[in-house]
Amino acid sequence: MQIALPYGSTLTEAFKLAKERGILPTWMGTAELRELETALKERAVFSARTTHADYLQALRTAINKLIESGYGGAQSELRAGLKQMLAQLGYDPVTGFPGDQELGIPPAEPGSLRDLSSDRRINLILDTQTQLLAGKGQQQRGLEPAALDLFPCYELVRGGMVRVPREWLKRWSVAADNIDWQGVSREAYGNLRMVALKTSGIWAAIGSTALFDDALDVDHPPFAFNSMMVWAEREDAWGDMGVKSEGQRAKSRRADAAKLPAPVKSVNGLDRDFIESLNKKIAGVESRDGKLTIGSTVQSAVERALERRKARVNALEAALDAAVLRVEINAFTRREHTPKRVEVVHQPPGLLWQSRPRPLR
Amino acid sequence: MSLQIRIEVSDKATPALHAMHGKLTDRSGLNAYIATSAEAGTRQYITRIAASTHETAQRLGAAPTNYLTKRAQLTESTHNADSATVIVSGAIFRRVLGPVKVEARRSKWLTIPATAEAYGKSAREFNDLRVQFFGRGLMGLVRAEQSVLGTRARRGFRAETQYGLGWKKSQVLFWLKKSVVLPQDTTLLPDAQAYSEMGELAARAYLKKVTRELGLAGV
Are A200 and A155 in contact (CB under 8 A)? Predict the structure, then answer.
């Protein structure tokens, strides 16, 4: 197999997701923000206690650059740029942005997590938003039919170093108990590993604030603030989830989203020009009786996704030439083909990725 | 900036892949499996090497930035009737193709972290740095109270007389360079052998799927 290495496109799915986001500045605290509908949060970059739209725009630009990670995507440079912008906007940890005191926003201790200009705060926002977008993209692609057939399970593993690791095995047990271990491998847990079906409810449980205060209320990595936990695709290696015999049907999360009530956000208390800015930035927004909804956006996204899936299924059915394939499959199973040597473009320093080819039945 | 790894099947492909590839009129389905397998394999590979690649952080005694892990999570794939493509984003992966020369663009100098305090940070985040000349073309950024500009000390002026300071050994936070050349590193991505195995795994799974759909299981 020859591998060509062209150098090209700058757009990735996560980058596109980031570009489709609107801006949702708010003067509400973190606890109040959690009450917002999940669909609205997925479409907005939000930073608790940040009120200045210009700074949020700069945040969004920084996150886009971080995902792209070309020239100028270094996190340290982006952080320095954001600090500079905060200074230019007149931000001070104690007094906040000009006008914040009138909104009753309490002062922040300089250097703390509540200080918008602190390294801790900026890194937290950049890392969390980037990881959320990446995790969401991996989740969406992981539910495609090919991905479900190849890798029906995820294993939760540590992807990077953290200063104070959480006890994820204990969290896993608590979350699994919460859903009666449905879709969760007990055998893997006995081996101190966290493996579950992609469609298992444990992924929502382990990222839920109902069980863990530091969770992000998501069903994909990173699950919690400052977490470096990631997904590794897995086959049903433990055989205790019945995947081989029954298979796992692709669950259309987009279709499920259509059953959710349209998320509603009250704009009471927001300035008129800010409401107008939100109307412009959040596509498909309707404003009625002092409330914004994005129900039309969710519905249209679901319809587009279903159409794409239908087209893929039709193409697959049309492409299979059953008669020719039947003959060739018989010839193959009689082992008339001799194995071919693999063309190696690079001399491997060592085989670093092991697959486990299974014999044909 | 993204690097695309396009996987194409040749005559020397592994058995299942060769059998499937030659007989399908539309290879979109097969390429979907190959793309998925290659994406998962690439992501896991980068995550695994990220756990052991903290040379600079360890040398400086600094906390790792987890840069490679974050890059790994942004791995994606696409496919069409002709090929499967894995996309990795991050300037670091240019090193796979060959040596990379990094030059300063918006400023005259590159700033290379020299201490744990500076690692993972930009020089712009410090407001008390000054340039220090060390001779033989070496320049660095040090704290302002440690900076000794020019060569007045060599002319016999005593530092504590001229600047009111005792002579202190300067601790460089950043070295200043016009450019650096990062050597090629092919181990940042899986090799051709690994991608061949990913393709074989995908082809076998796709073949099983097709036989299952056609009711030929066990043939």
Answer: no
Q: Exposed, middle or buried by CB within 10 Å (0-12, 13-18, 19+), for A297?
A: buried
State the residue for tokens 């945040």.
A59
Shortest Cα distance, chain A CAs vs residue B172, angstroms: 18
Task: Supply the DSSP string of A199-219, one letter for each residue.
Answer: T-THHHHHT-TTT-TTB-S-S
Per-residue burial over B103-129, b if 16 or more Cβ lie within 10 Å, else e, is eeeeeebbbbbbeeebbbbbbbebeeb
pLDDT at A171 over 90: yes
Q: Mark yes or no for CB contact B69/A159 under 8 Å.
A: yes
C-alpha dist (Å) from residue B82 to B8, B9, B14: 8, 9, 18
Instruction: With CB atoms and an 8 Å threshold, state whether A67 touches B89.
Output: yes
Those residues whose C-beta lies under 8 Å from the C-beta of residue A346, and which sit 6 or more positions away, are: B186, B191, B192
For residue B20, give the amino acid letter.
Answer: M
* Averaged pLDDT, A235-246: 60
**How sure is the predictor about A154, in pLDDT bands with cuts at 50, 70 and 90?**
very high
Tell me, yes or no, if A260 comes closer than 8 A to chain B by beta carbon.
no
Closest to A143 (Cα-Cα) out of A238, A258, A256: A256
What is the secondary structure of chain B as a DSSP string?
-EEEEEEE--TT--HHHHHHHHH-S--HHHHHHHHHHHHHHHHHHHHHHHTT--HHHHHHT-----HHHHHHHT-EEEE-SS-EEEEEE-GGGGGGTS-EEEE-SSSS-EEEE-STTTTT--GGG-SSEEEEEEETTEEEEEEGGG---TTGGGGT--HHHHHS----PPPEEEEEESEEEEPP-GGGS--HHHHHHHHHHHHHHHHHHHHHHTT-TT-
Q: Do B2 and A1 touch (CB under 8 A)?
A: no
* A154 → chain B, closest CA residue: B40
Low-confidence ranges of chain B (pLDDT < 70): 1-3, 7-25, 53, 145-170, 216-219
B35 to chain A: which residues are within 8 Å by CB? 146
- The complex's ipTM works out to 0.75
Amino acid at B219: V
How many residues belong to chain B? 219
CA nearest to B23 within chain A: A325
Q: Give the single-character DSSP code of A102.
A: G
The predicted model scores a pTM of: 0.64
When the pLDDT of each residue in chain A is averaged and rounded to a whole number, the result is 69
